[in-house]
Amino acid sequence: MAELFSVPQGCFRLTRQPYRKNELLQAWDAADDYLLHHLAENETLAGQNIVILNDSFGALAVALSEFRPTAISDSWLSQQATRENLAANVIAADHVLLLDSLSLPSTPIDLLLIKIPKTLALLEYQLHRLRPLLRPDSRIVAAGMVKALPANAWKLLERLVGPTVPSLARKKARLIFASLDPSIRPPQNPYPSYYRLTADEPPLCNHANVFSRESLDIGARFLLQHLPDQPGYRDFIDLGCGNGVIGLRLAELNPAANVAFVDESFMAIASATENFRSRFGDAPRAKFVVGDCLSGFAPASADCIVCNPPFHQQHAIGDHIAWRMFQQAHAVLRPGGELRVIGNRHLNYHITLKKLFGRCRQVAANAKFVIFSCERA
Ligand SMILES: C[S@@+](CC[C@H](N)C(=O)[O-])C[C@H]1O[C@@H](n2cnc3c(N)ncnc32)[C@H](O)[C@@H]1O
């Protein structure tokens, strides 16, 4: 349900994405509210080049839309929320320029507004990339909820941008004001980073915001040992692909099959694309899709979907995205097709999977994880 976000810039109807009928969480937090009050009281915004980083669901972009800001995010869902929230408030889509996390604004930045992301590596990457667009008189304001603001966020700003001054906390939110120190010589941007699965394979590329970017996730490692081996499958989907490690192995085991890599993170899809190309070249059998679960896929178009689902969306923990993935997988599988899922034991995915598919077989289990296979009737 849309809720009203009332700030000095106006009163806006905002919803989160993906949309849920009985959503309990707001599409903004007290840090958005604090930041917008600060801007109204202290900044002249007209004619300024404003860049917003990591706006969760468009609260900042919508509230500042009259100043034509640029909003940079790694999340397709955040961008979609911004588009929907602009439309819901009758604001033309072109009032906000949406850029993905690997793109840069084309002109110097007067005001940089940063929501501190969950993954600090993303912030580190962003500061490296945006520093050349900052000037000594650019204003830089970072915002976050106190409980989600690691000390390293400060250190990163000081190391890569310049001196910082914290605000007082308000409603459990805090602002950090930073200014550019032109004398700092930042080290080389460490992203993307690479690790090897085996000595004879090309290294795996991991952009800064990719899940388990430093080494193979232990769940993914277990899933790799229990991938489907039905010879008849033609169309595979690696759903929530991250760096693509699961889909790459499917492509290797099934050389004649098509594999679609899907993720809502732009950096995940950029990593999976590079990883596929370094192994298989520009083979047309791979498709790379940035989007929400399987929204763009036709019903009954896949033989096998393999998934290591997420258990949080930004700072919110829960299985709602996993549940959407299972529902959509059920719709996108052909009759006789298979969904193979790994989950932490305590998540009890088999209960929801049984409801959807009627049956659900346990393929493997260890102390931490269970792997299920569900056949589409
Ligand atoms: C647990 S990670 C698994 C990554 C990779 N498959 C692996 O096993 O290492 C879950 C992935 O789901 C992605 N994800 C989260 N929400 C999504 C959504 N709504 N649609 C598509 N992918 C999503 C995350 O970005 C993340 O890459």
From TrEMBL:
**Residues annotated as domain RlmG N-terminal:** 5-181
Report domain Methyltransferase small positions. Answer: 204-372
Entry annotated with the keyword S-adenosyl-L-methionine? yes
Q: Which InterPro entries match?
A: DNA_methylase_N6_adenine_CS (IPR002052), RLMG (IPR017237), RlmG_N (IPR058679), RsmC/RlmG (IPR046977), SAM-dependent_MTases_sf (IPR029063), Small_mtfrase_dom (IPR007848)
CDD domains per record: AdoMet_MTases
The signal sequence is none
- The main enzyme category here is transferase
Q: Which reaction does it catalyse?
A: guanosine(1835) in 23S rRNA + S-adenosyl-L-methionine = N(2)-methylguanosine(1835) in 23S rRNA + S-adenosyl-L-homocysteine + H(+)
- Name the GO terms of the biological process aspect: methylation
EC number in record: 2.1.1.174
Instruction: Provide an example Pfam family for this protein.
Output: RLMG_N
- One GO molecular-function annotation for this sequence? methyltransferase activity
Keywords in alphabetical order: Cytoplasm, Methyltransferase, rRNA processing, S-adenosyl-L-methionine, Transferase
- Location relative to the cell: Cytoplasm
Instruction: List, alphabetically, the SUPFAM superfamilies matched.
Output: S-adenosyl-L-methionine-dependent methyltransferases
In which broad location class does this protein mainly occur, judging by the first location in its UniProt entry?
Answer: cytoplasm
| Family recorded in the similarity comment | Belongs to the methyltransferase superfamily. RlmG family.
PANTHER family to which the protein is assigned, alphabetical: RIBOSOMAL RNA LARGE SUBUNIT METHYLTRANSFERASE G, RIBOSOMAL RNA SMALL SUBUNIT METHYLTRANSFERASE C
Primary role: Specifically methylates the guanine in position 1835 (m2G1835) of 23S rRNA.
Q: Please identify the protein, giving its name as recorded.
A: Ribosomal RNA large subunit methyltransferase G
Question: Which organism was this protein described from?
Answer: Methylomonas aurea
Q: Which gene encodes it?
A: rlmG
